[in-house]
Amino acid sequence: MAANAAPKANPGTGTTARQFAATWRLHLMLLPAVLVALIFKYAPMPGIVIAFQDFKPWQGISGSSWVGWSNFELIFSMHDSRQVILNTLIISCLKIAFGLVVPVIFALLLNEIRQMGLKRSVQTLVYLPHFMSWVILGGILLDLLSLEGIVNQLLSFFHMQPVMFLSEGNWFRFTVILSDLWKEFGFSAIVFLASLSGINPALYEAAEIDGAGRMKQTLYITLPSMLPIIVVVFTLSLGNMLNANFDQIYNLINSLVLDKGDIIDTYVYRSFQEGQYSLSTAVGLFKSVIGFIMIGGGYYSAYKWANYRIF
Amino acid sequence: MYHKNPTYRVFYLFNIAFLVLISVVCVLPLLHIFAVSLSGKSAADSNLVGLIPVDFSLDGYLRTFENSNFLSALRISVLRSAVGTVLAMCVTVLAAFPLSRNSREFRGRNFYVWFFLIIMIFDAGLVPHYILMEKINLINSFWIFILPGLVNVWNIILMMNFFRALPRDLDEAAIMDGATSFQIMSRIYLPVSLPAIATLSLFTLVGHWNAWFDGMLYMTSPDRWPLATLLQTIVVVQDFSKTGIRFEDLQTLSNRSVKSAQIFIAMLPILLVYPFLQRFFVKGIVLGAVKE
Asked: Where in this chain does the record put each ABC transmembrane type-1 domain (chain B) (predicted)?
């Protein structure tokens, strides 16, 4: 971790008591964050046992009866919960794929622009949707994409059939993936732009002298230099395999597209609203465990292949 | 020189045109909603508005501000954004400083790292959270908007990495003079960390302003909702049964130009702070997130 740190006098040596005397201020500074984390993140964790109970709110966790794995058996025997997991995977995997490729291409194209003013303006505009919530964008999309909306007016102007973007299953998925891409591609490009600006210009000069055109320079200098950060972003995004974005889907979904658009998080919330607390928790726990494995694996691979450490 | 190559020149022109088009597409829907919000009722309802308001009218905004539900929701949103951002930044900076020390200097560091890593990758889920909030009597309390979100591990990491990127020579002189950790943090690290703090403040502020789910989940009465939750029911769900909105207001609220005005008002604070903080955040994120 600190291989480059030269040995020097530090206050942390000696017995535990002496160490604490030297660093108690640091512990104190961490105290607020630790307390909040203990109360609001750690304290609810034992609550996941209700996934193994037939939980009745008026009986509480201690009073409800234990049912073992039957909630989980229920999940995997119900047709709609299997469909929900499948929907989640399809939507999130497509989002991950497009969400990686498009920002890289965008960063490469933007990197070619030499007029700084133009480059800044483009950046300012494409980052903006990232800061809008899915409530706002949901409201806008419902308006734009309705049958009488401006997009369908445009289609009919070109003599095309109107499209039911939000009320036909496959179009719904298409809309969800495209609108997510629209909202996030600019912002995701930031890290790629940063890695582009870090490439040593001497490499390009050398390639120039060897007679490489811009295409060759991109292929043999730019892309290989970006590869580590692409690997990091990809491996970290694997943790989102079961996260298809509750905010977005919940604000766009309707009963017509439940079969193709319902995802784990919206399913959990609906079961919660219907009072199926144990089922809801069991689905949530299933998601958390898989997510834990994916994120853990993602961080491990990012560390291994790209030497990326989070802390 | 590839710049002078004719093929590259053609590509360059197309590239500029393409990128300009892409950036216009990113803001076009927002401009459209703005135009609708400034249009007359009939023009808006019959979808005649493109990017320029038709029969200009401020009616949408006037109707919105006549509505008391909307005003109280606006007040709650402003309050939670201000209080929530300030407190969250205090907690974040305080936690990031000790974690930015190396583990020889601060022996407990590894323990704390694991402590925060665990909550970053494992979450108890909806129902256990709800049960906890009920137990500690936070349902229907304003503080439920603030307290659970005070610790954002990702923000702590960004801040910590920013601190780490600062040259360590900075604090050595201060240590010689006998400065405490608090003094080093507040007098030396904070003043030079403005980009990172501005970035994280923007993210936290936007997060609070946009948050709607906690309002819906934890507030049983709609008069405690923040703006985003109210907007969600009016604009997205279009269900007025729970909102406590009077029947007379219902006609006007479902009006397209009024809805657009509400959407625009909800976007406005972000549009206002964004240009000022925007120049910071690229620097802030990059220093925090990318390290080789």
From this structure: 74-277
